Amino acid sequence: MKKLRDMGYEIYFRAEKISIRRYPHKRNIRIERAFGEQYSIDSIKNKICSRYPTREEVIKPKTYTGKLYLKGTLKKFSKPKGFRALYLYYCYLLNVYPKKNMEYKLTPAMRAEVKKMDEYSKENILLVKYNITDSKELNECKTNLNDKLKDLIRQRNNLYYKRQNMPENENKDEINKKIEIVSKDVIKIRKEIKLCNKIKVKVPEIKEQIKEFNKKENDEKQKEIQKKKQRRW
User: Fold this and answer.
1) I need a surface site. Which of 110, 130, 143, 198 has the fewest CB within 10 A?
2) H/E/C letters for each residue in the chain?
3) How far apart are alpha carbons 171 and 103 in whole angstroms?
């Protein structure tokens, strides 16, 4: 527009149409009629807009405020007890679950146990899975697992027998798949029974090591208290 005005043209807008006129001519020339639809106001606007990328609208996430209501009681979220609590505390001392800015001087027996962290983690998972807190529940769990193992072995033997008596030309893929699934369950249950046996042996040892650790820690605290008293004197 500025260039047209600099060239001596006068510009008129009427009814969404552009017309121009140059002195000394008295007649207006409608651009759209003279040069085609590409010079209409809408076409010119579209050409200008096409030169610039469209700005996407930024949608701000909605925030909600309100009250949350808990169904049930907090008793369900109570602290672990018995064997589970013992294992968690022991793993904590072994730095399986380290606490910020806390260093413990472990006993020689506990340092050796640090190498078995993965094993302790699996045993702890078993205790949580079957909600085991004492020796009675551990023995019950082991009995149930043994019964389940016997049932699985019986199922697998039946499948072996069935496969053995199938005609040679018959497809055995389906029965082989069933045997594979049952065999995986057998391996899993055997591992869990083995973990039960290890827990039964380890619990008294863990109790003794925690007792030794607490005694050692208490002795060191007493020494620190004595040192502070001597400094004051």
Assistant:
1) 143
2) CHHHHHCCEEEEEECCEEEEEECCCCCCEEHHHHHCHHHCHHHHHHHHHHCCCCCCCCCCCCCCCCCCCCCCCHHHHCCCCHHHHHHHHHHHHCCCCCCCCCCCCCCHHHHHHHCCHHHHHHHHHHHHHCCCCCHHHHHHHHHHHHHHHHHHHHHHHHHHHHHHCCCCCCCCHHHHHHHHHHHHHHHHHHHHHHHHHHHHHHHHHHHHHHHHHHHHHHHHHHHHHHHHHHHHC
3) 62
Contact 123, 199 (CB under 8 A): yes
What's the burial of 120, exposed, middle or buried (CB within 10 Å: 0-12/13-18/19+)?
A: buried
User: Is the distance from CB of 106 to CB of 95 less than 8 angstroms?
Assistant: no
Taking residues 131-139, what's their average pLDDT?
A: 90
Domain boundaries, the chain: 2-50, 80-218
Residue 64 has pLDDT above 50, yes or no: no
pTM: 0.51
Contact (Cβ atoms closer than 8 angstroms) between residue 153 and residue 182: no
Does residue 157 carry a pLDDT above 90? yes
| CA 125/CA 121 separation, integer angstroms | 6
Tokens representing residue 35 in the block? 């040069």
| Both tokens assigned to 18 | 């552009």
Tokens found for residue 42 = 């809408």
CA-based end-to-end distance of the chain: 96
Higher pLDDT, 226 or 22: 226
Q: Which residue do the tokens 């619990």 mark?
A: 203
